[in-house]
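Discussion board: Methods & Data

I've been asked by a reviewer to show the raw model output for two of the constructs in my manuscript, not just the figures. I'm not sure how much to include, so I'm pasting the format here to get opinions. Each protein appears as its amino acid sequence followed by a line of discrete structure tokens. Is this the kind of thing reviewers expect to see in a supplement, or should I convert it first? Here is construct A:
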Amino acid sequence: MLVQTVSALCQGQSAFLPVVRQPEISEHVRRLILSGPPTRDQLGRIVFNELYQLFLTMPDDEANSLSALLSGWKASGLTLDQMAEASRRDALECSILFKSALRRMMNLFVGSPDQFPFLSRLLIGRQSSLSKTAETTRKLLQTGLTLHDIASKRHLAVSTIEDHLVELTLKKVNHWLSDYLSTACEQQIMNVADHLKTRQLKPIKNHLGERVSYFQIRLALAKNAVSGRKVVRINEQ
């Protein structure tokens, strides 16, 4: 929303349909802009320069995924489904890339605020958090329950709990990871991903067969996306 607002202001526009309609976020962005430089041109240059430096720190796939979702004046960002279609990736891969880019961005804002003096203030008073349902799963994991135990206790599909564990992995809440993904299995998956030059699930699964599950592939890709391991992708025929 910050990028969309700054883009509109630089075009001399103060009225537009925001991409986010949550009052607390709108107010946070408004206060950030009011605390910034006095002119719109200066504000635009600062945001552009800091975004440019931010994208330089990211693998190309992550930078492209994050920039594709940004909206500007008369320029709507893509949804994850639209990005998947445009880039010929599956939606999960796009989601992993986007969340990895967000995590990298937040880590940089926290660890190097002097490098991003304006954008890093987006995090002031705000903390990254898990979704409520993933947080519930995290707490149950801490009690020693297994994935299937949690699914039964919460009356949810096992696949839903798997989604929560992938989210936890993307946010580095993964002390339980070795219960579902051994180091050897992870390395095997990533070696195949490197060899095939893809993060798409199906080609990796087809190559490894019954030796790994789709869930294990998702965990491995999520863990390595957060750590910044770059896999160059070629178009699949």
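Construct B, same format:
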Amino acid sequence: MSFKGRGLFQDERAATVVFGTLLIILVTITVVSALALSISVAQKNAMDRQSAIEASESENLKIVSIQPKASDYPLYSSYWDSLNITVLNLDILDSRVSAVSINGNYMMNYFLIDENMEPFLISGTDYPMIFDSRRRAEIPAGKARQIHIGGIHTSENITPGSSSPVNVSLSNFPDKAYSDFSYLVKVYNSTASFNYGSDFTVDENSSILTLLNDSFVPGTNYTVEYTTFLNGNMGPMQVSKNDPITVEIISDRINVYKKMFVPPVPLAEVQYKSELRPNGSVDQYLLFDASGSYDPDSDGFITGYGWAIYNGTGAKVYGFDEGDTPLRGVKVRPALNLLDTPFTIDLEVTDDTGMVSKLSETSGNITIP
């Protein structure tokens, strides 16, 4: 008897078994690889989540102080024009600010000031760069930045070439940098300031300043100053000087940092004093005492005292504004002619966070008849 043999690859059943086995091995390898990749991705995601949690927990921003600035315009004299908020990053990683809230109102736009007290500018311009929820302000690790909320102050100089009325093209008008804004304009020089409407007008569409009267002297240099309020920023009548200010900073790690700033309370006492001179005459004087003033913050304290005194003619003898003769201290003995009555006394106190309060804006000035 003889057999006619067939090779392995000639046996269809054997080939099917081998192919099936190889296919099972391939599928198994694919499944194992996919499972390993899935586990690797899951592990990476878990590590990323853990890193994000640790970064969020370790983030440490501190709202150090604020510097409120009063408005220069009489209509808004009882309101703050702007706030500079100093934020310190105590972490080893940089942080970014997602949002800023003032008294519960979120500021859609704000500005950033560096350690040299210079604003970050729009490239090629003198205008501060706008930061918001998309362009987030960075607070570098171990450093502080100031967030500026409120009016932006910019200016330019003009020199009219002819008598009024004359049109002057403005090169730094805010509309050239910001599309959504409201603004206030002042025109002045070293000897005078001028009023919008009666002395000059501005066409915001063409950026043209029109000088209306003969008060403007041809060939004389004048300063045009702009205070610009971006939409969604702090407006000129939003924060009263007498109200507490609550600041909230929200970081991009979803941490919220909050601090309330309460204005200090100015209290003043005026005493008549007599002093015997060596020649036997008696010198009478006034002693002003602000030692009763206090800071309502439990850990706060007053850092500065300034006095303003007006005599019977309304002339300012001492003041706390720029250019005034200063009179500073908790207790002061001003050089006054006691015959120039009545005297009107105002006191300005500043606390360690930068909050300022005046007697005239709280309980009222003191009058000495």
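Answer (T.O., handling editor elsewhere):
This is acceptable in a supplement if you add a one-line summary per construct. For B, something like: The first helix runs from residue 12 to 58.
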